[in-house]
Structures are given as C-alpha cells and as structure tokens.
Amino acid sequence: MKGRPNIHRDEELVHKAQQLFWERGYSATSLSDLSKATGAGAGSLYNTFKGGKKELFRRSLQERREALHAFERDVENSDNPVALLKAFFLGIADADTEAHLRGCIVANTVVEMTFVDRELEAEAMQLLQDTEALYTTIIRDAQKKGTIKSRQPADVLGKYLITFWCGINSLRRIYPDRDILKQQIALQLQMID
Amino acid sequence: MKGRPNIHRDEELVHKAQQLFWERGYSATSLSDLSKATGAGAGSLYNTFKGGKKELFRRSLQERREALHAFERDVENSDNPVALLKAFFLGIADADTEAHLRGCIVANTVVEMTFVDRELEAEAMQLLQDTEALYTTIIRDAQKKGTIKSRQPADVLGKYLITFWCGINSLRRIYPDRDILKQQIALQLQMID
DNA sequence: TTAGTATTGTAATGATTACTACAAAAGTAA
DNA sequence: TTACTTTTGTAGTAATCATTACAATACTAA
C-alpha cells in the first residue's frame, strides 16, 4: 500500500452523509453541510466519491439496500416470518421523535426526486419494489402453510403493505406518538392475520 | 384605479407556480423556473407576492385548502357522505400518469420541508390534519346513522384514512396503473364498510 | 535517504441562487 | 396636457452552490 493513509473510513463518511440526507433530503443538503458533518474537506469527499454529492447519496441508498438484505436473511432463518414482519412494523412505534420525523429515506427520495433526477428516483423506486417483493414472498409462503387465512392474492397484500409502509412514514411525522402509532399499525396488520 | 394595469391575474400566476412546485417541490424549483413558467419577470413576481418564492409556495398550498373547503361543502350538501368519500378515493385510480407521478402536493411538502422550513412544514401538516378531521367527522356521522358498521372509534378510522391517503400517493408513483390502484383502493376502503 | 503515490485541506472556479434597484411603460385623474 | 401611480422587464447584487486545482502532507518502497 502506497500514499498518504486515509483518515476517514468510507463507511463512516457515508453514514454521516446519510444522516443529513435522511433529514433534509438531497437538494436541501449542501456539500458544505456534508463537509462539516463528516469532518472531511470537499477535496477529500470528491477524491473518495468520484461522483461527488450524487454518488454520496447513491451510497446512502445502497446502505438501505444492505439493510433490506439483512432483513431477507432474518426471514430465511426464521420459522415464523409473518411474526417477524409484524414485529418490524410494530417496532416503528417505539422509535424516538427524531426518527419519526425523518421517516423513510427511500420513500422520501421517491417523493423528492420524481421529475428532478431520474436515476436517483429509479434507484429508490427499485428499493421499494424489492421490499414489496419480500413482503409478497413472506405472505405467499404463510398462506401455503395456513399461517395467514386471508384469501387475498399474495401480491395484492404485498402492495397493501408497501402502501402502508409509505403511509405510516407520513403519519409518524404528523403524530410522533407511540400509542397512536401502535394502534394504527395493529389495526392495519389485521389485514394479514 | 391608478397605475399601470396588471397583465397577469394573481390566480393564474399562483396556479402556474403551483404546477411547478407540485412536480419538483420547493427547493428544486428556482425563481428562474417560475419566471419562465408564469411568463412574469422576477420584478413582477416580487411586486405581486411580497414574500417572494416562499409566499408563492404558501399560496400554492392555500389553493389546496380551498379545495378542501370545497369538498367540505360537497359533504354538507350530500345525503351520503361516505359514498362521496369512497368515490373520491376510487377516482384517484382514473387520473393520468402525470398526476400519479405528482402525488399530493401537501403530503410531498410535509416530506420535503421537515427539518428544512418549519413554517411550510407546519402549514402542510395542518392541512393534512384538517383533512383527517373531515374524514373523522364523516365516519362518526355515518356510524351514528348506522351506515358504517365498524365499531372502531371514528378518530382511529380517520387516522387510518389519512395514512392511506399518504400511502396511495406513494403507491401511484410506483404503479401509475388504473387497475392496480383501483384494487388497492377498494381493498382499503373495506375498512369503512 | 530518496522517489513515488495517494490523501488531505484550502482556496479558487464559474454557475446558479433568491432577491432588488431602477427606468421605461401604461394606465388614471386633474 | 401634466402630474401621479403602479406594473413591467432588465440588469444588476451578493450569497451560495457543486466542483476542481493544487500544494502540503504522510505514508510505502527502494
């Protein structure tokens, strides 16, 4: 290995950038904001992430894709994926107020980037669709096993859940309140009883 | 009346600005964009709307409040408000692709403006809450009349519907498809049967 | 040491931002 | 006409934007 050693780990830079993007979105986050938050100068950021601000944002989305993969693995190793899914949704209510106000960076990006940046919009959209596909798979398997009694097609229920995901991430901004959210989530999860 | 006559009607300026804001959001819409779209120079826009870009955006939200009031009047004059509400939701599916991709300017604003502009966030948030309050009133009245059989508290069902409103406005971006949307809307409306 | 290499922070770049100063334009009232 | 008023488009303003040029830095390899 040659050259001056890295002072920042790429992962940490992306994580700190992601926090800013998650709160303020892409357009309202300036490179000066990112430089301050990460502690890395503009030169460093551009040397590390060749695509600049946009690449940094892409990496922030990719981190969410890894989170999705982690959840997929949890589902594969579980003997009750539906319970896992329900626990995931119910757990949202226990997050702190800041997390409620942030919502979901993927859903936020779809809203912000439509008509603004096709690439970022498409990547976020794909992430939502892949999440939906996971929901659908979980439901289909559970219907075969008889764990879910609803006769509604699995893909319809999958779309129902991704709709709910986007919806609850708006509701928690309006009502960052544990009890209200718990009640709403429990109510909506009845659909996959 | 004195002075040089207006060449643009305020209403039309707001409407054209609203179309841009609705598509691209607040931050990604520049004053130069607004000037081109409205046909009015920057000087004219600032002379007409003293608060500049932000005031123009506020007026765009106010127009949506007027739309809410119009819907409130429809409800008051209707002998079956629940049918009106269901028709409103089902009608979303029939919109064109552009409208699907735009979503709801109010819900979009809540997402974009949290942590960015408290005032605009608060105004959009209030608009969503007022919409929710209308849903709740419609449901409460229908429960009294026996039109809705669900014993779920009216305010819980109201929150359910505003969650669905935000959710469906994300789903229609992913699937700007009449049939898929019709099915999802019909499914979710079963909750207020 | 010495040469080579990659990262760092700073300072500049040119473009774009929201906004404003201002004079010309276009009307009314006397 | 003349005086007055308001709107209009243009040409600025200062600030901020994303990006880059570059020299100093800090390491490895020889």
UniProtKB/TrEMBL annotation, chains A, B:
Give the stretches traversing the membrane: none
Query: Which Pfam families does the UniProt record give?
Result: TetR_C_13, TetR_N
Domain Tetracyclin repressor-like C-terminal span(s) in chain numbering: 91-183
User: Which keywords accompany this UniProt record?
Assistant: DNA-binding, Transcription, Transcription regulation
Gene Ontology MF term list: DNA binding
Concerning InterPro entries, the annotation shows:
Homeodomain-like_sf (IPR009057), HTH_TetR (IPR001647), Tet_transcr_reg_TetR-rel_C_sf (IPR036271), TetR_C (IPR011075)
User: What sequence ranges are listed for the domain HTH tetR-type?
Assistant: 14-58
Q: For this UniProt entry, which residues form the secretion signal?
A: none
User: Which protein are we looking at?
Assistant: Transcriptional regulator, TetR family
- Supply the source organism for this entry: Sinomicrobium oceani
